[in-house]
Amino acid sequence: MAKPKYLEQLENYLRKELLLLDLGTDSTQELRLQPYREIFDFFIEDFKTYKPLLSSIKNAYELMLAYQREKIRTLEPLKAKLITMNEDCNERILAMRAEEKCEISVLKKEKMNLLKLIDKKNEEKVSLQSEVSKLRKSLAEEYLRYLSERDARKILIGDLNELRYQREDMSLAQSPGVWGEDPVKLTLALKMTRQDLTRTQMELNTMKANFGDVVPRRDFEMQEKTNKDLQEQLDALKADYEEVCKEHEVLLQLHMMTLKERDQFSAELQEIQRTSTPRPDWTKCEDVIAGGSERWRILAEGKNSDQLVDVLLEEIGEGLLRGKDSFRGLGYGEDVPPFLRFDGIVENKKPSKKFVVDLLQDAWKERLGDEKSKFQDFFFNFLERRFGTNDAMAWAYTIFENIKLFRTNEVMSHFYAVLMGKMMESVYINHKNTVAKLLKEMTNADTQNEGLLTNEQFSTILKNFFPLKKEEDIQELLESGGWNANSEDVLNYRFLFIETEEGQSEPFVQKLWEQYEKEKEEYLQEIKQQLGLTVNETVTLSKLRKALMTIDPSLDKHTLRAYLSQAFLIPESDLLELEKEKEEEEEEEVEVVEESAGVVLHKVLERLRIADTKRMGPRELEPTS
Questions:
Q1: CA–CA separation, 244 vs 469, rounded Å?
Q2: Which residues make Cβ contacts (< 8 Å) with residue 426, sequence separation at least 6?
Q3: What pLDDT score was predicted for residue 284?
Q4: What one-character-per-residue DSSP string does 367-380 give?
Q5: Mean pLDDT of all residues in the chain?
Q6: What integer pLDDT is reported at residue 277 of this predicted model?
Q7: What pLDDT band is residue 18 in, cutting at 50, 70 and 90?
Q8: Are 586 and 488 in contact (CB under 8 A)?
């Protein structure tokens, strides 16, 4: 089958253009794509019927190519920065390794010197011990020689004394009248004296034999001192050696930690290179948002990227919502809220944002006088009273779609949370009452009724009105109120409580709400930590009561029962009866009843989160004087 003539012309033109590009020396992929663009433009121009679809396809591809080029261009500096960081890390690691090698070599040298010193001291100790043993041996030999000489002398002296005594006895026997004493008596006395002398001599010999090997005390103390000094030096060397070993182990551990950090940094670098995306250019939204750049700057002021996404979605959703003329009913299923149960088509009333906010505020005013019915039923009854039975369902769908869309609007977001059961009515009402009471306190402090307060007055009122807030929280409120180091001495406090036509509060009231939610979340985390359970474990009534009383001793019985009732979905009257039974019945029976009423912890925390749960006093009560 022959090709169409127009197709052949396009193919010939494409081949010709590609051939010309191939002959060029610096043709790029971008240039090679140009002939295909031209062919596609010819194709679009010739087929008028499909021109819108083909043009949208081409524009989509062109936008994607431009986005990819912009993405590649923004990633180039990041790539160079990552390469530079990698080189710096490698240089630091090499420098640390070089320092470690030098320190290890120095420590090894010190270790070898200490080992040599220990060996030298050991050799000196061995030589001293050998010298002491030689001296002891020579001393023993001299002692034996002197002992033998002494014994020989004693024997000789004894013989001489014996001979002298015999001669004296003979002389006395020959002339008894010379001394005038009885010879027998004198002989007996001489014999007794000789026996005493012999006994004394034996005791002296025994003493010398027992203590002959004993060295002088002075020599002993000198040797003991020398030995003690050597032992201290040895202990010091051992301690130094152990310290060096410990430092060596620490250096090894530090080296391993450095290697792990290097590997971790390398992995993070690779992950960053793989997942990094360019930061969105929010100025592009100026040409898309109704009102131009001036309105976009007002919408984007003071918001982060996540909040800007919500703003952009609201603007887009608002355009789509106003483009709808009707809504399709969700039916009569159980998962459909009662005020939306309808099967068919309902009209989109397309109200302004200000009209919706005024309507919701009127609903809150009527709700304060009718708190008996459920909030969803009240809302539909309010619409019936306001717009009639025929238009109530249309207004219900219209209001519901608007409050679901505008998340950044305080009035709409809070009303939507209460309407869908994500927040209890008491949370919103108590917050409004808190703001009103705070304004009243400031008004009372303004004795001149000028609407002005000093920094000290404003700070004192906040600290007295919120005694449980931390100092940094008070400072945040001061800054949100417009006070800083360069601000004036007085501030018009009434401006802090003004609301716009669309129900938006000033930053000061918004900061109060943010701190309330943050404090509630911290309070719930304290409960979880005090219970010591995972979110999937079961908590009983008694455990939760004990945990609440532990972290918040100032809780009164009524508030405690309210928290327990909300957490376990038990009426307060039943809790009151259970407390009375606990006082009357035995402890074991009560524990059985409470264990059967256990609830998973994450459900308990979620139920407390939607209620007005807050701390009533400090965790530790101050002792009373």
A1: 52
A2: 611, 612
A3: 64
A4: HTT--SS-HHHHHH
A5: 83
A6: 60
A7: confident
A8: no
Instruction: Determine the Cα–Cα distance for residues 104 and 251; give it in Å rounded to an integer.
Output: 9
Q: At what angle do helices 425-445 and 455-465 cross, to 10 degrees?
A: 140
Strand boundaries in 253-385, DSSP class E: 326-328, 345-347
345-347/326-328 β-pairing: antiparallel
State the residue for tokens 């005024």.
Answer: 358
CB 540 within 8 A of CB 597: yes
Q: Which of 431, 419, 329 lies closest to 379 in space, CA to CA?
A: 419
Q: Please compute, for residue 214, the number of CA atoms within 13 A of its CA located in the half-sphere on the CB side.
A: 9
One-character DSSP codes across 7-69: HHHHHHHHHHHHHHHHHSSS--HHHHHHHHHHHHHHHHHH-STTHHHHHHHHHHHHHHHHHHH
Yes or no: say if 581 and 529 are a contact pair by the CB < 8 Å rule: no
Compute, in degrees rounded to 10, the torsion defined by CA atoms 316, 319, 323, 327.
60
Residue 625: which pLDDT band, with cuts at 50, 70 and 90?
very low
Contact between 342 and 304 under an 8 Å Cβ cutoff? The reply is no
CB atoms within 10 A of CB 419: 22
pLDDT digits 0-9 by tens, 357-398:
888 888 888 888 777 788 888 888 888 888 888 888 989 888
Q: Is the dihedral of CA 103, 108, 109, 115 positive or negative?
A: positive
- pTM score, whole prediction: 0.53
Tell me which residue of 535, 111, 475, 103 sits closest to 527, measured CA to CA.
Answer: 535
Distance in angstroms (rounded) separating the CA atoms of residues 312 and 285: 8
3-state secondary structure of 410: helix
How confident is the model over 563-572, as pLDDT tens digits?
888 888 888 7
Alpha carbons 620 and 603: distance in angstroms, whole number:
28
Distance of CA 52 to the CA centre of its chain: 56
Strand partners, 491: 453
Q: Is residue 353 within a helix (H) or strand (E), and if so which, with residue range? A: helix 353-367
Distance CA 25, CA 80 (A): 28
530 near 547, Cβ under 8 Å?
yes
Q: Evaluate if residue 288 carries a pLDDT over 70.
A: no
Sign of CA dihedral 230, 234, 240, 241: positive
198-235: per-residue pLDDT in tens?
Answer: 988 888 888 877 777 777 778 888 888 999 999 999 99
Q: How many residues does the chain have?
A: 625
Q: Average pLDDT in the 337-363 region?
A: 87
**Structure tokens, 260:** 């792990």
Task: For tokens 């990698």, name the residue.
Answer: 86
Model pLDDT for residues 146-175, shown as the tens digit of each residue: 888 888 888 888 888 888 888 777 776 655
d(CA 340, CA 248): 75
User: Which residues fall within 8 angstroms of residue 542, CB to CB, at 6 or more apart?
Assistant: 590, 591, 594
Q: Pairing between strand 345-347 and 490-492?
A: unpaired
pLDDT at position 596, please?
A: 42
**Strand, helix or coil at 617?**
coil
Say how far apart CA 617 and CA 548 lie, in whole Å: 12
The mean pLDDT value for 276-300 works out to 65
**Residue in the block written with tokens 């939607």:** 610
* 315 and 295 Cβ atoms separated by less than 8 Å: no
For residue 95, give the amino acid letter.
A
